[in-house]
Design brief:
Elements: H1 3-28, E1 43-45, H2 47-62, E2 74-80, E3 87-92, H3 104-117, H4 125-136, H5 140-151, H6 161-171, H7 173-180, H8 200-204, H9 217-228, H10 235-245, E4 246-247, H11 265-270, E5 277-284, E6 288-296, E7 302-310, H12 318-331
Helix pairs in contact: 2-12, 3-5, 3-9, 4-5
């Protein structure tokens, strides 16, 4: 190889390394920001909706004659989105911070769409695959990848305190995004795992299951309502998010925990309610069973209903029974 060629190759390699070195600190300072025209929605408490939701939840609880389903094991928020500029709501234990399981993936999806819209992240085939798998099949591995992209962090070995503090600051990027828009009492800075976290991911939890993800049904319902009504992004990105969350409650499946048929969707099968439309993101662990759903009924109802339940992970009736109660109440 000629010396001139070798020098040229060396120069290119050094240039590449210098660019990477410059890019790294720049990436660490990137923030996720709301649309310039964004303003927090006005959610007005409704006595009528409150009666409907209270009745639906209490009727479900009374179905457990032995009192095995306690009122402290469910939280719910209902938002009527038919008038986007004047949305009405009701809630039960709405500000209780609960481990959200896979429902948190909806928050990561929305944050990624903001980054894509602002040109701070570039869509690739692999990123599109990860985003789809995170929401459609609720892949934990895809979620880990998406959170890395959002925060420019990655799993790995534990770090010395100073380096860890920088890592944790970047990992909190999604929290800062939602906090800036007025979301409170939530934590959305952890990956989801099929088994357990290791290394720096455990360091982030202080090795004691601290700093876990946490959501309220109010915050979750607010986000879903804002996605549905197009407040969070452009019409094109709103449509993309809705497509990922679209469910078919009458889908033929043997999976009792399908996001299509195993959560809110089961209510429509039980009621033989054809023509209904469902968009949702469910969450399920050994202790939790949750659903965040947007529902449109043939008679014109359009509402968000978020239901979190704890200690009843394998109960396939509680969530759909509340959904059925809400629908009956809205029908009057």
């Amino acid at each position: 190889m000629k010396r001139s060629t070798l020098r040229a190759i060396t120069f290119i390699v050094l240039l590449s390394l210098s660019v990477s070195a410059v890019d790294a600190p720049k990436r660490s300072k990137i923030e996720i920001v709301a649309p310039k025209t964004y303003s927090a929605p006005k959610l007005e408490p409704s006595a009528k909706l409150q009666t409907i939701l209270d009745t639906a939840v209490n009727d479900m609880l009374r179905g457990y004659a032995d009192g095995s389903f306690k009122n402290t094991e469910i939280a719910a928020t209902l938002i009527d989105v038919r008038e986007p500029s004047h949305m009405q709501m009701a809630s039960v234990r709405d500000d209780e911070r609960i481990y959200p399981a896979s429902v948190v993936k909806m928050f990561y999806m929305n944050a990624l769409e903001r980054q894509l819209e602002d040109g701070k992240v570039t869509m690739t085939n692999e990123l599109a695959r990860g985003l789809r798998d995170m929401i459609v099949v609720s892949s934990n591995e895809a979620t880990q990848y998406i959170l890395d992209v959002l925060t420019d962090t990655s799993s790995g070995a534990e770090l010395p305190q100073k380096e860890f503090d920088q890592w944790q600051y970047q990992r909190n990027r999604v929290n800062r995004f939602y906090s800036a828009m007025g979301f409170t009492n939530i934590n959305v800075n952890q990956k989801t795992f099929c088994e357990d976290a290791y290394g720096i991911e455990q360091q982030s939890r202080n090795y004691k299951s601290e700093n876990r993800n946490g959501l309220t049904t109010n915050a979750t319902a607010r986000l879903l309502a804002e996605i549905v009504t197009g407040r969070m992004n452009t019409p094109e990105r709103t449509a993309a998010m809705m497509d990922l969350m679209k469910r078919d409650p009458f889908k033929k499946t043997d999976d009792a925990d399908s996001q299509d048929t195993g959560f809110s969707g089961k209510a429509f099968v039980d009621m033989k309610m054809t023509g209904v439309k469902l968009w949702s993101k469910a969450g399920w662990t050994s202790r939790a069973r949750h659903d965040a759903a947007y529902i449109e009924t043939p008679d014109g109802q359009k509402f968000v209903l978020v239901i979190f339940t704890e200690n009843h992970a394998n109960d396939h009736e509680a969530i759909p029974n509340v959904v059925k109660g809400v629908i009956k109440g809205l029908r009057g």
